[in-house]
Design a protein that fits this description.
The complex is a heterodimer of chains A (110) and B (117).
Chain A (H helix, E strand, L loop, with lengths): L3 E2 L3 E4 L5 E7 L10 E5 L6 E4 L13 E6 L4 E6 L8 E9 L2 E4 L3 E5 L1
Parallel strand pairs in A: 2-10
Antiparallel strand pairs in A: 1-3, 3-7, 4-5, 4-8, 6-7, 8-9, 8-10
Chain B lengths: L1 E5 L3 E2 L5 E8 L9 E7 L5 E8 L4 E3 L7 E6 L4 E6 L8 E9 L2 E5 L3 E5 L2
Parallel strand pairs in B: 2-11
Antiparallel strand pairs in B: 1-3, 3-8, 4-5, 4-9, 5-6, 7-8, 9-10, 9-11
Classes of the chains: A mainly beta (110), B mainly beta (117).
Chain lengths: 110, 117
Amino acid sequence: NFLLTQPHSVSESPGKTVTISCTRSSGSIASNYVQWYQQRPGSAPTTVIYEDNQRPSGVPDRFSGSIDSSSNSASLTISGLKTEDEADYYCQSYDSSIWVFGGGTKLTVL
Amino acid sequence: VQLQESGPGLVKPSQTLSLTCAVSGGSISGGVYYWSWIRQHPGKGLEWIGYIYYTGSISYNPSLRSRVTISVDTSKNHFSLKLSSVTAADTAVYYCVRAAAGVIDYWGQGTLVTVSS
């Protein structure tokens, strides 16, 4: 199976844009959809991006997702950062009936 | 759709952890869904445990496969997790989730299970 590697933490100021990467260790990032989940402290995760770049209803368009085959990675970009975006973010994908989560990235908005 | 985990919050080492996820607002046998368990060790990331598909097919995390059983009871509209031979390393918040095509759309609130004597 493969691993999904995320930076441990990122920080940015309110109003700015931040990008969180998720690199797949083996196999093509384009082979299986990537999802992104947001988890605020003390709460269950929620989906912010599914199928690489789709937003569930209710998720603001400040959140966007993409994949880059050249770096075999997926990215979550949050623009116009708000303090409420401060949370842990996890990427997730699957292959051969196995689901894999990235280790998570703590986003600090300061 | 709402998912609600239930089960003992404290399990002794070497025993079997048993959790149930009650599904409300929809039939567990209606639709093309995966019914899955995910856990999160204190202060750590998410770890997929396994799922049961609407067809009845099952997949487990290779690292837990020898100790995990996931099953569905359609008459009670719930699905279950059993994890045998637990140790302190199995202390975690356990989430039940529903997914469509590998995309999680509903999460339970999570339940903390502590393994301790």
